[in-house]
Amino acid sequence: MAKEMDFEQALARLGEVVAQLEAGQVGLDESLKLYEEGMKLVRLCNEKLDRAEQRVMTVRPAGDDAEVTPFGEEQA
């Protein structure tokens, strides 16, 4: 992972890593390397999702003004 991947690339690579590990066709050393790579990819995906969630805002009409609340904190 020399350059930072975008979310879709990281998720696709994570799927490849999981498939390789589940196939059981690699030795212990390679399995450990794949596991470590997979954990890095999970962290990268989680960080990207966290950043995206912070950016997503919900705008709802509130009289003459618009009410802006963070995504997931909408009030009924």
SSE succession: HHEE
Radius of gyration: 19 Å
Please state how the strands of the largest beta sheet are arranged side by side: 1-2
Tell me the fraction of residues in β-strands, as a range: 15-25%
Mean pLDDT: 83
The end-to-end span amounts to 43 Å
Structural class: alpha+beta
Helix content: 55-70%
Task: Please work out how many helical segments DSSP would assign.
Answer: 2
Describe this structure in words.
With 76 residues, the chain is an alpha+beta fold. It has a domain at 7-57. The chain has two helices and two strands. It has helices spanning 7-23, 28-55, and strands spanning 57-62, 65-70. Helix 1 runs antiparallel to helix 2. The radius of gyration is 19 Å and the shape is rod-shaped. 5% of the residues are buried. The mean pLDDT is 83.
